Amino acid sequence: xxxxxxxxxxxxxxxxxxxxxxxxxxxxxxxxxxxxxxxxxxxxxxxxxxxxxxxxxxxxxxxxxxxxxxxxxxxxxxxxxxxxxxxxxxxxxxxxxxxxxxxxxxxxxxxxxxxxxxxxxxxxx
Length: 125
Fold this sequence. Notes:
- With 125 residues, the protein is α+β, with helices and mostly antiparallel strands.
- The chain has a single domain (3-122), classed as Trna Endonuclease, Chain: A, domain 1, CATH 3.40.1350.
- It is 38% helix and 33% strand.
- It is built from three helices and five strands.
- The protein has a five-stranded mixed sheet with strand order 1-2-3-4-5, sandwiched between helices.
- A hairpin with a 2-residue loop joins strand 1 (45-55) and strand 2 (58-70).
- It is globular.
- 33% of the residues are buried.
- Pfam families: PDDEXK_3 (PF13366).
- InterPro entries: GxxExxY.
């Protein structure tokens, strides 16, 4: 399945979660619910995927964790914050570069309308 097709399912699933739960909960709650929705849609989801850094052929277990990694092609970073900022975007871009993936989503569930909290992030490789 192509990244854009996965992305469409991600957005629809996130909207479903947000419509049912609304804003104001912990990130872990949204993560668990979105994980469930994506798996129900038939996608392969790795939750809290460990992401080492490779430096000069050495794998360094730096403790990075991808919130949801879908079909090993699309990265989802979930937030429940007042506002997204540049460091959140940098985090997704870094994960995309380290995994050599092209597409990621930064989803902030702490908004009245989820469309205000969606950032599609593309890695130019």
